[in-house]
Structure formats: structure tokens, C-alpha cells
Amino acid sequence: MVVKTGLDLFHVSLPKKYKGLKAGLLIHPASINRHFKHACQLLLNSTKIEIKAFFGPQHGIYGQTQDNMIEWHSFIDAKTGLPVFSLYGETRKPTDEMLKDIDVMIIDLQDIGARYYTFIWTMDLCMESCHKLGKSVIVLDRPNPITGIEIEGTVLDSNFKSFVGQKPLPIRHGMTIGEIGNYLKGLFYPQLDLFVIKMRGWKREMWFDETGLPWVMPSPNMPTLNTAIVYPGMCLLEGTIISEGRGTTRPFEIFGAPFIDPEKLIKRLKEFKLKGVLFRPLWFQPTFQKYAGELCGGAQLHILDRNSFKPFRTAVAIIKAIYDLYPKHTLWRPPPYEYEQVKKPFDILVGSNKLRSFIEQGVSLKIMEEWWLEQSFIFNRDIRKNFLLYG
């Protein structure tokens, strides 16, 4: 059975009130239907809507910027003559000028299920601008590739909001991008005209490779589903001096640093009895980003059972192990990071400074996990369940 995305169902599910309106289209390389046809091609040829401008998130409309925190600039599309507005450059929020010729913003972005993956926050800022100007928003829903069931990790404390977390969500949120749109409208933009074109055939327990849909990299360092599975934890390494594997062929599955002894680290990690994962010792040499051209010791994560694997717990164990084994190294990366100039990158990724404090104080993994489990349980019970679209 092949799941049909919001893009697949656009022409049969678009309400009549939007027919003929002028639209902006927020897209990236993974904005494709089940036949690999891109939203740009499909909606430009649509008789239902008139595309007046394109918008692109971090990494660009073509996924052209390889590393994170590399801005790109607006331009005119040579094929259509339409403007392509960057929402990760001179601005991250659509300006009044960008929106002046459109009635509705259509959003078709493949999220990967983690709070710090910035596409949901680009959507949030689009919703904020459209709310202010009385424009409509249509979200073409797509699967959460790492299932819509599992929730894990800390819930954002609003004192630590940034472009890797603008509103309270657990790090692994277990929602689709359409459900997050529902949540944002329900709690922050109540007057916004939002319509989510739901998927057909998607079930919450599905992993992406069970949907029948083609995987296209939503960003350059998200090459496979396995990358997405580990990302809700391993992205935390961006807030440290440890390489998260950028500049290798297995970003986020490979990690390490020049001062790490792989065997010593893996021996320590075995003490945590982490489920569903095996750590293989290795040496690697990143081609760019942290330690480019330097030999690093570390490990590769091999997922043995994705249903029992806990990415956030695993990453916290890795960071705690390295912190304890190598106390002479200052583990925390200094700012700036993702437009935050003052707060530590690790803290804004976590959404709190409490986890860093726990690690520094030698608090056990069990006690730390009890803290974030309580947070995610309360968020699910009191908030998340009110905005889900699928059983």
C-alpha cells in the first residue's frame, strides 16, 4: 500500500474557496509526489491555483547549501521568471513585501520528526506573517519518517527559544508537519485561516520505508532513513566540540574527535546497556566542518532494533561518557549558533540549561531520563493529543 501525501491529493482535496487564488509555494528537494514529480512542476501547471512566488528554507530551494548555518540569497527563477525568496538568509520570516502578491502560502516540506530540524520553524514564521496580514496557509501533509508514536526528550523552555526551537515541543515530537501546523494555529495563531491536506493511508506506527513513498534527501546531511532515526539524539553533538560526522558519508551515525580512544569510549558506553544499538569503533577524517582533515577516534552507531532504540537517551549517554572520560576538554561549543549569539548551542538544542548542568554534576542517566520523560508525558497528555489528525 502506497501512502498518498498532501501533494498527491492536492487537486482532489483543495477546498473551492482557494480556487484561483495567488499562491506562494514553500518547497525543497523532497517536495515530490509518489511518482517523483516535484510540487513546483505539479502546481505551476495547476488550474486550481496561480503560483506567484517560491520560498525556500534552510539549505535552499534546491538543497544546494551543504553545511548547516550557510545562508543563501533570493533570486529570480530563470525558467519561470518568478521570484525565489530565501527564508534562510537576509531574513527567516517572510516580509510584507514578499507576501504582497499572494493570497495563500502553500507549504510542502518533508520534516524528519525532531524539534531542532528547522523546517517546522520556517513554517511557524510563515504562519506568523500570514496571520498578521490576513493571508491563508495550506499545509500539504507528509509522514513523520520515524513514526508518529514515539515521543522522547526535553520540552522546550521558552527562555531558550531559538531557530532550532521556537515553541514548546519535545525533541522527538511524534507529529506530522500538518499536526504541528494544527498545534501552532491552535495555541499561537487562532485567527489564521489554515487548511491541512491530510494524507491517505498513513498510520502512526509506520516508518518511512513502510509507506511506499520514495526517500529524497530533505537536506544534504539527511541522506537516509537511518540518519533520521538517530538524528533526534545525535544532533545534540552540534552543541559540543565532538564531530557529529558532517564531512563523512554517514553524518550523525558517525561521531568522534581527535582526542577520543574508540575502544575506551565503547567500553564505557556498554555500561549504559543502551537498547537497539551497537557501537562499532572507528577512525575517520572529516572533509569539512569540525576537525576537517584531522584523524578522529570515535564510533559508528549501527541500529539493530529501531523500535527499541532511543535516540535521545543514546546521545545523552554518549555525551556523558565523553564528558566523564575526558574532563580536561571543554566539551561545550561556544556561541554563535543558529542566530543565537549568547546562549550555549547545547542549551538551545536541548531547550534548557538543565541537562548540561546534570552532565557537569555527574547525575546518572536514569535520573536525567526521568526528568525528560515526565516533561514529554505531560506535553503529550495536555497538549499534543488535541492536535493529532490520524489514529
What is the residue-averaged pLDDT? 97
CATH class of the largest domain: Alpha Beta
User: What is the CATH superfamily of the largest domain?
Assistant: Uncharacterised protein PF07075, DUF1343
The domain count comes to: 2
Terminal Cα span: 17 Å
Which word captures the global form?
Answer: globular
Beta-strand percentage?
Answer: 15-25%
User: Runs with pLDDT <50, length 5+?
Assistant: none
Overview of this structure, please?
Helix 2 links the parallel strand 1 and strand 2. The chain has 11 helices and 12 strands. Helix content is 27%, strand content 15%. It folds into 2 domains: 205 residues, Rossmann fold, CATH 3.40.50.12170; 154 residues, Aspartate Aminotransferase, domain 1 (Alpha-Beta Complex), CATH 3.90.1150. The chain is of the alpha/beta class and 391 residues long.
Outline of the structure:
The chain contains eleven helices and twelve strands. The protein has helices at residues 10-13, 39-44, 96-99, 119-133, 177-188, 225-234, 262-270, 311-325, 345-350, 354-361, 365-382; strands at 22-26, 50-56, 75-76, 83-86, 104-107, 136-140, 152-155, 170-172, 193-197, 254-257, 277-284, 296-303.
